[in-house]
Amino acid sequence: MHAPAVLMRAVTAARNSLYDRGWMPSRRLDLPIVSVGNLSVGGTGKTPMVVWLARALIERDRRPGLLSRGYRAKEGALNDEGRLLERLLPGVPQVQQPDRVSGALELESRGADVVLLDDGFQHRRLERDLDFVLIDATRPWGLPSEDGRDPVCALLPRGLLREGLASLGRASAIVITRSDAVTPAQLRDLDERLEFVAPGIPRLLARHRALGVRSEEKLEPLESLRGRPVRLVSGIGNPTAFERTARDAGVEVRGVHVFPDHHAFRAEELEQLEGEDEFLVTAKDSVKLEALGVPHLVLEVEFDVVRGLAVLNALLDALPESRASRERAALHEGLHG
Length: 337
What we know:
This protein is of the alpha/beta class and about 325 residues long. The chain is about 35% helix and about 25% strand. The protein contains ten helices and twelve strands.
């Protein structure tokens, strides 16, 4: 047994038990909370799903607000994910605050009638109405497979899981992302294991579909990448998935430069990589390279639900109204009564 991992399991199990029994209270606010989270450390595609959910809620005449911890954000500024969300969801209020209860209350004061909580599955002090848990099909437990063997499924620090698989039982739905990047047999095995550890919890399939390449705010078709020599530069949680998507788009990869997740790029380190080939980056990394004035191409990707869309829509349709939306409805009725 790996002693630190055993200790981690004991601590997380005890904490979850305290919340489950009500001995550690969760704060219920007067507006619905929708959490998008995961079990593992690293990228599972949360940001694209947050964008999808925000747009789906806006189509339902809701006023979503975005709430996150703001990992590595500088004082008074949004982090890289926040700046990307600001670009993709203009006008949607956003708060980055380690105290999620205070952050949700701030969003409510700014007119939000539903809060999208990014990376909130383990943050149980704020009671939520929906808990979407994302599992990356290419590395479901955080670590990639080696030599064709099953990847390690273990808690930190032996593996990359924040809590055990049994915690999936409290999810509203499990979303298997990058479902098109594995074989049908691998997907079936993962589906069966998730049913075993979390029976009855709906399981959705999603993919991250490449749309095209953006250069200086101009979106070109994906075909324009075919045979184009580029260098891949990334500072994200799952750089392997980015590389796979880029290669599937037909680019000629001349170099792969991987930096740690949330890496703060410096102009001098990028200058050392410069050559005749263009940089191809993710949308999340693009906001950092733009700030440095480094020319680059952006591989634009969208979140696409390929199984379980009806379930997802039904869950969103069933969200309760907030106090603010009830007051707006009463005012509207009074004006037209």
